[in-house]
Amino acid sequence: ALVRFSPGQPQEPVSVITPSTQTPVDAAYCNATNELLYADGTAGGLRVWDLNTDREATTSVIDIGLPPVFQNGIVCWDN
Asked: Which residue in 13, 14, 62, 69 has the fewest CB atoms around it within 10 Å?
């Protein structure tokens, strides 16, 4: 699961971002859009989490053509 935490306040409890039906296997933060991209190993594709609204921005998994378990190094290109 993807979880939210504050490194400066380790006593704060973490909150789970992803539902139990998803299995994140890789993730990248997009600074320009304040979104989190992550590969969902259960559904076999890419999902987007909007940190501004604190909810998933994608309505379904995005097929990236390869199983996410083989994807290491998702990158968000902020230009």
From this structure: 13
Residues 3-50 pLDDT 10s: 877 777 767 667 788 888 988 888 888 989 999 999 888 888 899 999
DSSP 8-state code for residue 18 = S
Contact 39, 25 (CB under 8 A): yes
44: exposed, middle or buried (C-beta count within 10 Å: 0-12, 13-18, 19+)? middle
Q: Is the pLDDT of residue 66 over 90?
A: no
> Among 41, 48, 36, which Cα is nearest to 72's?
41
